[in-house]
Design brief:
CATH topology of the largest domain in chain A: Nucleoside Triphosphate Pyrophosphohydrolase
Structural class of chain A: alpha+beta
GO molecular function, one term (chains A, B): hydrolase activity
Largest sheet of chain A: 7 strands, mixed
Pfam families (chains A, B): NUDIX, WHD_NrtR
Largest interface: A-B, 38 and 38 residues
Keywords (chains A, B): Hydrolase
CATH superfamily of the largest domain in chain A: Nucleoside Triphosphate Pyrophosphohydrolase
Radius of gyration of chain A: 18 Å
Protein name (chains A, B): NUDIX hydrolase
Number of helices of chain A: 6
Shape of chain A: elongated
Organism (chains A, B): Actinoplanes cyaneus
Strand content of chain A: 25-35%
CATH class of the largest domain in chain A: Alpha Beta
Oligomer: homodimer
Amino acid sequence: MLRLAVDLAILTVRNNALHVLVITRGKEPFLGSLALPGGFLRAGEDLRAAAVRELREETGLDGRDMHLEQLATYGRPDRDPRGRVVSVAYLTIAPDLPAPEAGSDAASALWVPISKAQSRLAFDHDDILRDAVERARTRLEFTTLATAFCGPTFTVGDLRKVYEVVWDQPLDPRNFSRKVLNTAGFIEATGQKRIPQLGRPAALYRRGDQQTLNPPILRSNGGPELEAISVDR
Amino acid sequence: MLRLAVDLAILTVRNNALHVLVITRGKEPFLGSLALPGGFLRAGEDLRAAAVRELREETGLDGRDMHLEQLATYGRPDRDPRGRVVSVAYLTIAPDLPAPEAGSDAASALWVPISKAQSRLAFDHDDILRDAVERARTRLEFTTLATAFCGPTFTVGDLRKVYEVVWDQPLDPRNFSRKVLNTAGFIEATGQKRIPQLGRPAALYRRGDQQTLNPPILRSNGGPELEAISVDR
DNA sequence: TGAGTTTGTGTCAATCAGACACTAATCGCT
DNA sequence: AGCGATTAGTGTCTGATTGACACAAACTCA
């Protein structure tokens, strides 16, 4: 009997590294293994609603004000030992939250650096995670999604750090600053400043109205892999 | 009871217009209406395999040498009056085929211009078609997918026509030529020429090895809609 | 032969990305 | 108070790319 699941790849930036939220499985199959949070679709439930519900149940996060987009659907016949389970994966972007693991059923949820999670996840969740990271990298090129990694206010340096961490490549602070500030609607000045531990105070900004970046901020390196361009599982 | 379907948005360029392959439904619901070809996933069948099978069954096309990529998954609870049906949509790009409607069960398959199909399709297939067209437009910007609309050999003019028709905007032939020919691995010269009805003979090319375009060929106009960036149904 | 049409090369100015010099503002330390 | 260290922000220069367009090349048809 076929069942439909929803899995979540929740990404954030912590300690200068891209992290993913994983849970330790509390039951078979893959008891004790790491996996992406997720669960089965309920009768009459919309796909996105199921994603929001799982986000709350398994992690305690509120999906209403977070970025949540459908990633791809994974349906290899043997991907779940319990039987035929097709999974619709969602990509979620979260700011670095103070208590991300707090929640009712979320005792086992924890942030793990991407590099530590890769090749250690249950089911085909390694595939999902890889596709999620590549999607996020591409989104940073063509949309203002990077601001979703930041809190309500942030500095240009914070935003640059997001790009550097997600892309895993250093960026020139001056050129980045110029590009971001010249893109109307990307970020808006708040008029306030943040005094850092060290160095000159930086102006604080908030998200702008613009969703897409035109022109885009292209990665110098490589570009998207074919794998990610033609996701098909 | 939940069932999983696979639907196909098969696009091609005919008579200087973007066309989609639709079928006339032979049974309820939506008897007699136009719809995208598709069908239910079989037990133990891979998602992509189901797409390839439906492509052959309903249209007589061979998906092995065509572009076939997963588009998105549509799961609104009320999208199918028969009950809960979640559908994984695939995008297929085909060259203008001599006998596209020939096939066993494909008597009712026909090519329809996008503009004629929009707002006339059964289920939520209008949504799928809209997303498919937007995906194709974006693919042309960042990948060499345009060659999938052409036959084994084609001229730069043919390729430009694909861009103009899919993007629905005229392009400067000289600048387009320069950009395409300066992109290594996009197209390869065959050494042959095609004598047209009118005008100077044009050199014939075939697809190159490159899959991605770096730098991309960006649409001057608009850019992708937010709708298409965050497909979520 | 000449008009018409499409292909292909070349030019030019404006724009953009990358590299980098330099100033500004704050810290801790002496 | 003064100095070095560090981060923020502005400005400059160069090379590459884009868009607009002139013009030559190759062919058909009348």
